[in-house]
Amino acid sequence: MILPDFESIMFFLAAASVLILIPGPSVLYIMARSMEQGYKAGIVSVLGIGVGSLIHVSAAAIGISSILLASSTAFSIIKYLGAIYLIYLGVKKLLEKTPTTQPAKAQKRKQLNKIFYEAIVVNTFNPKTAIFFFSFLPQFINVEKGGNAGQILFLGILFTVFAVLSDTLYVLLSMKISKWFANSKKYLRRQKNVTGSIYIALGLLTLTMNQPSNTK
Questions:
Q1: Nearest residue to 103 (alpha-carbon basis) of 37, 194, 32, 148
Q2: Domain locations in the chain?
């Protein structure tokens, strides 16, 4: 595999670090999952989001992302599927019975593998992630060296590893917040409403995304 030159990698790491530290929709999803179902569910969600990112990285490397972003139909399908799924998760959460146990115990109600696959779906059908990798990664490759796909893949994997580490910190932060309110019955009653509202808000945010004009 042909790798980018050292200077490009260092510049990429500096730019990626800034972007990773800025909370985005995936961070909100991970924090909501962590506060609702505990540490293990949060970590599993982080890994699922990471796998979804690697899917987008692979798509960017082999050119599928360019096809997706060039086709208004394909872009709309991905956008609506992602939005509908998030809204479905939100409505489903709002309709659940009010929990009477602490958030950390709630993870027993849902298998971790299901949470993992759910996170993969959420990130895979997020057009914002596809746009990001398609537009961000190519800026740091050395075209003269050739092997553009390999360079994009390497940078994408590097970015995903750093993002997973950063998202894990948000899981820990979520658990701190959850512990502060662990003994609050009002918090337990409202938790599902907050979580459901976050999912629905993320779904509506996905619906507002437009196809980049330079890909039409």
A1: 37
A2: 25-99+108-210
DSSP line for 8-22: HHHHHHHHHHHHHHS
pLDDT for 216 equals 41
Compute, in degrees rounded to 10, the torsion defined by CA atoms 87, 90, 96, 97.
Answer: -150
How far is Cα 152 from Cα 23, in angstroms, rounded to an integer?
23
For residues 216 and 212, give the distance between their C-alpha atoms in angstroms, rounded to a whole number. Answer: 7
The rounded distance, in Å, linking the Cα atoms of 65 and 153 is 13
Give the whole-angstrom CA distance, residue 48 versus residue 125. 13
In whole angstroms, give the CA distance from residue 117 to residue 61.
Answer: 23
pLDDT in tens, 175-215: 888 777 665 656 656 777 777 888 888 888 878 877 655 54
φ/ψ (deg, to 5) at 87 = -65, -40
Which pLDDT band, with edges at 50, 70 and 90, does 156 fall under? very high
**Cβ pair 133, 60 in contact under 8 A:** yes
Which of 187, 195, 169 minimizes the C-alpha distance to 32? 195
